[in-house]
Amino acid sequence: MEPTLKSNLYQLGFGISASLSIATAGAWLAWPSAVIPMIEKDGIPMKMTEGEISTMVALMDLGNILSPVPASYLMDKIGRRPTLMSAGVCAIIASAAVMLANGVCLIYAARIFAGFTKGIAYAVLPIYAAEVANTKVRGGLTAVSMVFLTLGTTVDYAIGPHFSYQALNITNAIIPILLLSTIMFFPESVHFLAMKGKHDQALNALAKYRQVKKENAKENGLEAEYQEVSRKVEEDMRDKGRFLDLISTPANKRALMIISLLAFFQRSTGISPIIAYSTSTMPKEGGGLSISEYMIVFSVVHAITAYGVMPLVDRLGRRPLMLFSSLTTGLVTGFIGVYYWMERSGYDVRDIQWIPYAGLVLFAITYGAGAGIIPSTIVGELFPTNIKSYASSVSAIILAAVSFTLNKIFHVVAKSYGAHVMFWSFTAASFLCTLFTYVFLFETKGKTFTEIRDYMAKLCEK
Q1: Within a 10 A sphere around the Cβ of 99, how many other Cβ atoms?
Q2: Domains in the chain: how many in total?
């Protein structure tokens, strides 16, 4: 069925609503950057040691590690939509906890619940979006979430330096409330309804997402599209699906290797510690703006880049964008690392203090152009319906584990050995990602899920 403007706009509306879950995660990612200066300067909400601060930052990723497996079970049991809504509930609990906190325990609990939000959103949204989108906009619709990730970080960067601690927390609570208020107006995933044998509801949902009348299903191509979906789901669901099925066939093993390493490389480029620690590691002057203002610029540029790349995901394709992004991101972090090495080695860097600021903005462009959006697009495309949720949870766990590790060690390594060590490790990861993408990542743009699976099977026969 050829997509119409009306259909694309409706799917975009869904993408915006569902991506509020990612915006919530983005706000909580940037929350430490907004709060750490308050803690260090005024002891708000309380005084904390360096160890407590690094633990506070890292605990979000602990929650992120713990949540994808339950989320994968729930999205196949109760549906994609209610599981995604649970991410909003966790975020509201996190906001309530930091508002009431009078000790580190509630702060830690809040960060873990924020991690639940992130883990659920990253496990569910790529699957949900891929299953409701038509093939012409599937990549772009998944990329919407990355725009909202940066919008979420922008909110906390903008509010943190200029408003109170409680105003920041109230704002963080508003985003998930908007998620819960809007997502209920969009239908459940067509694939999930077909999995449960609810064919009439599934056809209604597909008609809604394609913005055509169910009564004219034969004439408008709705019936043919649903028959293809139903056939593929039925084929996939002959086996109920288990975690071990991720490695049960050569095609599944290859797909698991691709999404796992893409997730590893995505976080190893350094996005998490750059978001969390930039306000405390950047030079105090040299950029022309304050550090907090530069973090706002970073988020805005990142959002604009991700928005601009959205149509290119389905025009140029996933592979060329990933190659460009990983290569240039490696160059940028290497460039920043040189500055921190010179500073650590005792060189006079007063005239080049602009380098980390320029690098930060360039990183927003290069990372947002591919590495930040392509892995989440790919994870919703490579697996059969019966194990998609498991694959998504594996990807989310790897994302969380790498983020947790980097957030925990960044502050310590930067203080003990210099920030250049961390930035050069980001460079090495980016260049390895470029090589991996060139060798293993194949193009999926414009292909149906059936075509992608058939192509994977042929690759494994060679």
Answers
A1: 17
A2: 1
